[in-house]
Amino acid sequence: MIDRKLAHSTFVIERDYRAAPAKVFHAFADPATKALWFGAPTDEWKLISSAMDFREGGREHHEARRGADGPVSRFDAYYHEII
To answer: 0.85 exceeded by the pTM?
Structure first.
């Protein structure tokens, strides 16, 4: 039997953008603008589901499938803190 240990931790991602803070915040907060980051559905990639609740405690989910029975790409996020 394999002895496995589980360790919980946290991390912070910081980025610098060459844009005004209000414009960057809008890119995260506005569902239509944020959807551009994931790309529009195409003949190759079909959107399965998408939801966004951009607030502390909110969640975000995007899921798409490549082809009729190909791999699924899934993005899930939970907003713990928005500064």
So the answer is: no
